[in-house]
Task: structure prediction
Amino acid sequence: MDLRQIRTFVALYEEGRITRAALRLHVVQPAVSQQIKRLETLYGTQLFVRKSQSLVPNALAHELYVHCIRVLAELDKAHALLTSGADRVGGKINVGAQSSFHQFVIARALQSFSEIYPDVEVLSRDGYRSDLIAWMRTGELDFSVLSTAQDLLNMQTRDLSSEALVVVGHRDTLSGRDEIEGRELKEFRLVLPSRFKSLRNLIDAQFQLEGLTLRPRLEVDSIQSLLHVTLTPGWLSIVPPTALSPGMFGSALEKASLVKPLIRRKVIVAWPPQKTLEVPAIRFIQILLQIMSNIPGVETSSNGDAFA
Result:
């Protein structure tokens, strides 16, 4: 059993379809089929059962998967050791994050990281969480910064922080307001992300628990564009504090605590189950945690100690 067969087996086990496994491995579909057939022939056994359009792993495959993941994890550790060297941090990392994080914290982290570790090449991508998860599965991203973790059962995750969402608007709109109740928002024009965004789904769910329904005048997915709308007096929005840069738009924007409901967003880092975070990735996450810990309203998780 060679390394290529192990990687092919793991990819097919996790993806469930030859087409997806081939895309993830950057090979043609027959190559996947051939590797699995050779593996099964070599040991005179069967690992997958075809059902409709997918391949379902049998009991033996479930046991084999556990061992294969351990093998790949150890190989990743060896690779990290050799590429990091004794004193130098080099290599490349592919970072993913939802757009609300790119507004401020990811940009700051990228700038600081590149200054401290100039030998590391960094690719940073933003997108919908479903896209980021798909890119991690295909190997295009090493890890991603995401909110919540309900749909990440097949990913490794660590908690980074928790943050209370805030109401943001023009200083004249929020003049003298340190906090605002959810029921009061009906008196203002609201701009919120669309329901394609996990942030909007979180907001709607918490308001419904209070017996409230939000009816925004505008739905805008771009945080930058959304914040520009709130520069007009009379408009408000609900955003995470990590989306707000100090001094953004001069002193025109103000924020107020949202109460009844108090909405907290959990922030995690996720990476594929067969990968081990290498030294550059860990250093980037450490810098990100430091930046987030200095943002009012953000509580970094004790689980972040795992990256220390």
